[in-house]
Amino acid sequence: MRFSLFRTRVPPPIYAAVAGVLIYGLHRFLPQATVVGGLGWMNGIAAISMGILGVALVAWAARVFGHVHTTIDPRDPYRASQLVTVGPYAFTRNPMYLGLLLLLTGWAIWLGNLVGLLVPPLFVVVVTFLQILPEERALATLFGGPYGDYRHRVHRWFGRSRYGGATVCARDE
Question: What pLDDT score was predicted for residue 80?
Fold first, then answer.
C-alpha cells in the first residue's frame, strides 16, 4: 500500500515562489509600508547575506541527499531510502526549507516593506502544516526508532537538543 496520506501535492519551492511574489506585491501595492532610507547599506548587506546563506544551505542539503542516494523530491516522502542526519541535517531537520525561509527573509529585507516581513513567518506555518508534518509521519513510519531519536536530538527548524551524534540510517526493505 502506498501511503497516500503521506503524499504532498505542491513542492515547497512553489510555496516559496508564491511567498516571494506576495512580498513583492506588498512592496509594490503598499508603498506606504516601505521603509525608505532605513538602515541603508546595512539592509542590503543583511539581505544579500541571508539570500546567499539560504541558497548555500539548500545546495548543501541537496548535495548530502545526492551523496547518500535518497530522493530530493518532497512530494512523496515514502520514497525516502535513507534517514539523513549528517551535514546540515545535524543542525536542522529541514535545511532546504530553512534555506528557502532565509531567502524569503532576505528578499523582504531587500525590498524594505514592513508588511512583507510578515510573509516569511506565514511561509513557515504553511510549509510546516502542508509539508513537514506529512514528511515527519512518513519518516516515523519508514525509520521508526532511529527517526524518533533524531527528532529528539535535532529541532525542526534549527538547533540541536541536549543529545548529540549523527548517523545515516538505511530503511529496511
Answer: 81
**Secondary structure (DSSP) of 149-165:** HHHHHB-SSS-B-S---
For residue 32, with 0-12 CB atoms within 10 Å meaning exposed, 13-18 middle and 19 or more buried, which class applies?
Answer: exposed
C-alpha cell at 49: 547575506
Degrees, nearest 5: CA angle 42-48-52: 145
User: Is 101 inside any structural domain?
Assistant: no
Cα 64 to Cα 52: distance, rounded to the nearest angstrom: 18
User: Is residue 137 a contact partner of residue 6, using CB atoms and an 8 Å limit?
Assistant: yes
pLDDT over 90 at 161, yes or no = no
Quick check: is 14 in a domain? no
Tally of domains within the chain: 1
Query: Can you read off the three cell numbers belonging to residue 12?
Result: 515547497
Amino acid making up residue 109: I
**CA gap 150, 148 in Å, rounded:** 5
> For the residues 39-57, what does the mean pLDDT come to?
90
> Model-level pTM?
0.85
